[in-house]
Amino acid sequence: MFFTVLIILVVIIIFFMRKPQNFPPGPVWYPIVGNFHILKSLSKSEGGQHKAFAKLSKIYKSNIIGLKLGTEKLVVVSSFDLIKEVAYGHEFNGRPRNFFLKLRSMGTRKGIVGTDGEHWKIQRHFVVTHLRSLGFGLKTMDDMVREEVTELLSILKQSKENEIKIVPIISVSVLNVLWRSLSGSRLDRSDPNLQYLLDLLDKRALAFNMAGGVLNTFPWLRFISPEKSGYNLVMELNKELKALLMKTINAHYETWTDGRDDDLIYSFISEMKKSNGAPTTFTEDQLLMVCLDIFIAGSQTTSNTLDFAIMMMILYPEIQEKVRNTLNEAFDKIEHISYNCRGRVPYIEAVISEVQRYCHVIPVSGPKRTVKDAILGGYRIPKDTTLLFSFYSINNDESYWKDPEVFRPERFLDSEGRLSVPERFAPYGFGLRRCIGEVLARTSIFTIFGEILRNYMIVEATGSQKPTEIFVSGITLIPKQYEAKFIRISH
Predict the structure, then answer these.
(1) Strands 484-488, 456-460: parallel, antiparallel or unpaired by DSSP?
(2) Angle between the 284-315 and 231-255 helix axes, to the nearest 10 degrees?
(3) For 130-255, where are the E strands, in sequence order?
(4) pTM for the predicted model, two decimal places
(5) In terms of pLDDT, which residue wins out, 332 or 11?
(6) Which fold has domain 93-360+396-488?
(7) How far apart are CA 258 and CA 54, in angstroms?
(8) I need a labelling partner for 321 at 20 to 30 A (CA). Which of 36, 224, 292, 442 fits?
């Protein structure tokens, strides 16, 4: 009996440790945990999961690393050419069917971010078409951002050079641009529930990384340690977001009229009504998840980019001064800064691009899933393998950037001072899963950054710790909290 049990255990161990034939190189797989303990240890010692992936790439001398987290096979791609191949390859265009994405979508497999196949195509096309009809990139979008910028500048003016944390102010402004595109209305900045929601989003971003965190690897932990594993946090956030979104959706039901399409929710309800009971992907659950996708995916990355941009202006005052001089030369004192006029100030776009590259706002992107067995870089990637992109590696590649550790906006300008952005620099992704809200994000970042820098000189807070370039790692990277003084400039 003892030997029978022993043999069974040995067989189980061999099964869990065995890698698929010609799978990408990587550390040995251990039973149950896979490589979770190794990745966690490296992430802690190196300063983030993105740096752990880079370390493994060096150890195994490969731009493709094969890992296993629990039962999930994971491949991390760190080469631009290979990332591009995955980004445009239909065999890599699935989304993982793991616990993290299930949690993110409130137990459903709906929305846009976490779906694939025909459902994803239909819903993505609808959202992109709707956003275009609202005037993304046109005057309508500029007007939406302008209203938020006006309020933001008013708040800064009222601070009277007090030392403040700019992130909460900017976060609400960005969130309101998104909220208006969804619902046609704004969130009340004074509403305490709004700040509570923003705090939950921040905690969520820190509790998980792009590989899903401990909860994705060991879903059963939610029964043993729901608080420490982050399960309670996600459930609380889901509850708050659902209440907020459903309140707005129900209000739209009450005021909807046939064919109404002046915001995304009205447009979606109009599509729902067209089905007349026939099978359709346009359901209330789907509407809720589309709103959630836009709400979560758009708010934090845009806010974090602006947070980083302001921090870098404090750390590099000579660049801050050049930004301000460039804006003053290009725009009249009474003229609004507009994204449509960005061609006048290529240096500003270069600065924003360098912030995104240098600060690695999204160091790891994805996740994607192979929908069938595939070959990548000579290695076999089995069906249902999860793939991640290491944008940290390609944005930190010395063979291309020469001095990636230096903050130098001029790298995005050609010899005549015109904007020159290489294909490999893709802060919004590329290929089949490119960010659908890219123009909205670019418009918000350019306009908010430009107007703040034109009107205020930003310096570190008196007696406080200087902002540091050691960032906090989660799903995205964020700066450590800092305070700054905004000194109004007379025009």
Answers:
(1) antiparallel
(2) 120
(3) 163-164
(4) 0.92
(5) 332
(6) Cytochrome p450 (1.10.630)
(7) 54
(8) 442
